[in-house]
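Open question from group meeting: does this chain pack into something compact, or does most of it stay loose? Before anyone orders reagents, we agreed to write out a predicted structure and look at it together. Recording both the input and the output here so the notebook holds the full record.
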Amino acid sequence: MAFTNSVFGFLKCYVFLTVAAGAGGVVLGYDRSQLATYMWVSQGIIGVINVWGQLDLVQQIRTGNVVSDLLRPIDLMWAAAATESGRFLYSMLVRFSLPVVVGAVFFTLYVPRHVITYPLFAAALVLSAALCFCLRYLLALVCFWLLDVRGVWTAWLLMSGLFGGLQFPIELWPDGLAAVLRATPFPLLFQGPLDVLVEKRSFDVLGLQLGWLVALVALSRVVQARALRRLVVQGG
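Structure tokens returned:
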């Protein structure tokens, strides 16, 4: 996976650097080094934020094994969050580093000018992963009603990358759509921490992430409570 991410890193980086070369070296307020950093670090944090990782809860609900999970002394959501926390730490060690190192070897990456940028980026990345978990948890809970969430999951996969700033900053979308996206948590998944790293934005990103995280955790608790009240185990 890290190798594949590195290959796509070359493709994305060359495309945007070519565009920058024809636009005086700056695209959407990002200079060449900022663009290179944006593209390569975005490839590194794919596995960390893990928008494509479906929670085990989906299969547990479909098979009815979720009943066993409910008998355990830990809440369903916090158990899933603990699992995701371990995966996050593993991905930081294994999947984040290789694409970033490859990008640093072949391109001139942006070096933050302020020391505080590093802890701010780390905090933004943790919050992005937490936001992504909440959104994926809500998608998993939909399985209590639909049983098969493949359609919903496919829509999520398309929207999370395109609207989250993974392929390109959302400012490339038409102004009207970009304005709508800014009112959603999607740009905070990828573009938020990347903008912090290249020092285009800072504390405002973390504030928005914290606000959305509180809202999504509260929503998840409400939806989970409703889902468990209507739980039906197939065949039992």
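Observations to bring back to the group:
The chain has one domain: 2-229.
Residues 2-229 form one domain.
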